[in-house]
Amino acid sequence: MSLICELTDLQKLYHKRVPKMFQGYCESGSWTMQTLGMNQSDFRKILFRQRVARDLAPRSLATQMVGLDVKMPLSLAPVGLLGMQHPDGEIKAAQAAEEFGVPFTLSTMSICSIETVAAATTKPFWFQLYVQKDREFTKKLIERAKAANCSALVVTLDLQVIGKRHADHRNGMTAPPRLTIPNIIDIARRPRWAFGMLGTKNREFGNIQGCATGVDDMNDLMKWTASSFDPNLCWDDLKFFRELWDGPLIIKGIMEVDDARQCVELGADAIVVSNHGGRQLDGTRSSISVLPEIVDAVGNQLEVWMDGGIRSGQDVIRARALGAKGVMIGRPMVYGLGAMGKAGVTRMLEIFHEEAELTMAFVGHRDIQSVTRDDVIIKGEL
After folding, report:
1. Residues 6+ apart with CB under 8 A from 73
2. Peptide bond into 332 cis (omega under 30)
3. For residue range 46-78, what is the model confidence (pLDDT) as tens digits?
4. Residue-wise pLDDT tens digits, 120-141
5. Measured distance CA(320)–CA(280) in Å, rounded
6. Among 13, 74, 192, 299, which residue has the fewest nearby CB atoms (within 10 Å)?
7. For the domain 7-378, what is the CATH code?
8. Active site amino acids
């Protein structure tokens, strides 16, 4: 563990331990992956102002996200198929987040079900909803999240249709993986993962299998998944979900000011500025470049968060300086989880906390609430 000093250490170990098709699912974007690249590269344009001779003790990153006390302004993003990155992956990530003091968000497309994760944790987690054509099933998902005491609902709006993800098609990505000769060879080279998967019953989409109408086996399930998201979703539909859910409502996938204003009118508690990690519309702007204009437009009416391209605690401070009340991270969680399970997620969170706290000190603050746009200089245009 002492040799894991930065996120790239976990990423390298992740690549050694997880089958290639699931690496591809994590690492790739859509089309040419231009937006995926900009999500990261635009952070490098945000430079810090280094200040000295300031009182820097004690220091704290503690704040709140939709009323929840958090150790730092960061939550684990909803990521599908975590249970394929590591056996019982959703459980391990949720437990690590709970113990560290940050929120975990369970994806609709998780391997471990809402109920399975709830049984393995002691504090409420958040649930992320993909709106389905089958509205009765969608309603039941919300009811199941309520019954499991999920403390916030995260509705993702940017997946009405699925982006062109070439890596997933090339890899023949399924859950569990099909036993083709290339897959068998790849899995055989990763015995740690293979034996772990043999030791768990959680190998299918737990929130869907046995719950969605017409889904009886994995072949039907994959067809259902590809065709189930609702292309007719509109803002009026969101009003219905707002009425169904009486807790904090977080809307993810906002990239334009007009859409952010719609979220305000809807009564959302927070929005996530996000382009789905560069996995949907390629050629759109990076999340961090869009963040300031959305904060300026609606930031005093609800909490504005962002995700996409965050690879360090320094990026957390950069996002905070540009107005984000919090961030969500997906791929860094996957690296930690695939590398070392629960311990890897914990180590990733430790690294991010250490990096964020030190960076905050170097720019002259000891409390995260004091970080502002005055702490950064933007080199060129975002």
Report:
1. 61, 63, 65, 316, 320, 324, 325, 326, 327, 368
2. no
3. 999 999 999 999 999 999 999 999 999 999 999
4. 999 999 999 999 999 999 999 9
5. 25
6. 192
7. 3.20.20.70
8. 276
